[in-house]
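Morning. Coffee machine broken again, so started the prediction first thing and wrote up yesterday's gels while waiting. Chain of 204 residues, entered below exactly as on the submission form.
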Amino acid sequence: MKGFSDAERDRIREQLLETGGELFAQYGLQKTTIADLTDPVGIANGTFYQFFDSKERLYLDVAELEGQVVADEIVANSFEVEDDPESAIRRFMTLLVEEMEENPLFMQLVAGDELDRVIRAIDEFSEEEMESLRGESFAHMLPYIETWQSEGRLREGDPFVIGGMFGMVEYLTMYREQIGEEYYPAMRDMLIETIAAGLTCTTD
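Came back before lunch.
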């Protein structure tokens, strides 16, 4: 990146992430142009690609940062305060789906027709990138899963698979319109209750 010092590169990247987060949440991925992203930062359109391969890759980085903040908050209000695994999982999934339904950044992705573009960008990730992404996604919940398993309060199995089950409720929100408001709330709540009950074990 000839022409930029390390400090300048860090500043520009942070500004692009901040600007992207604001614009994607307000207008969505498709309606946000490269110029919309670069003008507030004070760089040329072509310079954007020195920092991100595409708008989709910027969106993924923005979503990952947002997801980390959200995950910390959800864990703090579920796993950290509920001693019973079933109650903790149910609380975690409820807070997660509420975030998906109310967070402007996630709502734009789910409500729009942009999901396929983001999925295609993910498909271009290397195996190393995917492994790193999976590790970061589950890092906040793995200690709880492993502890509950060791105590016999959570079913046996790959902790990553079990952690993935906690996130299944996210996918239901993507089909909210197709499901219809008449059925969606009941299906959402039943899915949460079924997964939470199915993953936990009763102890004597």
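The chain has twelve helices and no strands. Going to sketch it on the whiteboard this afternoon.
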